[in-house]
Amino acid sequence: MTPSTSSAITLNINGEKYLLPVDHRTTLLDALREHLDLTGSKKGCDQGQCGACTVLVDGRRALSCLQLAVAAEGRVITTIEGVADGDQLHPVQQAFLDLDGFQCGYCTPGQICSAIAVIEEHAAGWPSAVTDGLRPDADVPALGAEEIRERMSGNLCRCGAYVSIVQAVARAAEAAGSQNKEAVA
């Protein structure tokens, strides 16, 4: 008996569950774009090098062109279509708009999803290759331009909007830090 090469899987995407029959070789990106018509995540290099396909899986960045859809079953997936709260843009989306963190816009969905995770990773105290002086008993240092550039380095922008992207991530991180301080007070 030949094993099946397809399955019906349930994906939890942007708070909704989707039952989908997929070939086991279908990437999460292809399932999103071709099966569910969620076309915000872009197919750039299809090799995991550009970051245009970045989504959040269980709150962490994932290159959807490298992840199989069957491996995402049971996980919480957030695409660019799911980061806003109704008509209220996510603070990262708003910062990208306010500071012109895009030009052609092709990489923007992946940049925004990555930036959301970057801000959360930094706030949780996760170090990067350029983090200096991080100690368990120390406060998390501010998310500066060098940290942002390092943490966002897996997302390429062919138009070169990097200066505005860094500014947008910094603004959104500052806003998130202010909200966290208000919640504690």
Q: How would you sum up this structure, described in words?
A:
This protein has a five-stranded mixed sheet, with helices on both faces. The protein is an alpha+beta fold and 185 residues long. Helix content is 34%, strand content 15%. The N and C termini lie far apart (64 Å). A hairpin with a 2-residue loop joins strand 1 (6-13) and strand 2. Helix 2 packs across helix 5 and helix 3 crosses helix 5. 38% of the residues are buried. The chain is globular and about 60 Å long. The chain is built from five helices and five strands, in the order E-E-H-E-E-E-H-H-H-H. The model has no long low-confidence stretch (mean pLDDT 92).
Care to give the gist of this entry?
Helices cover 34% and strands 15% of the residues.
Spatial strand sequence of the major β-sheet: 2-1-5-3-4
Shape: globular
Structure class: alpha+beta
The description of the largest β-sheet is: 5 strands, mixed
H and E string: EEHEEEHHHH
Instruction: Count the beta strands.
Output: 5
Separate helix tally: 5
Q: Radius of gyration, rounded?
A: 17 Å
Our estimate of the beta-strand percent is: 5-15%
Task: Provide the low-confidence segments as ranges.
Answer: none
* Alpha carbon gap, first and last residue: 64 Å
Strand-helix topology:
Layout: E1 6-13, E2 16-23, H1 28-35, E3 54-57, E4 60-63, E5 76-78, H2 91-98, H3 108-123, H4 145-151, H5 162-184
Parallel strand pairs: 1-5
Antiparallel strand pairs: 1-2, 3-4, 3-5
Helix pairs in contact: 2-5, 3-5
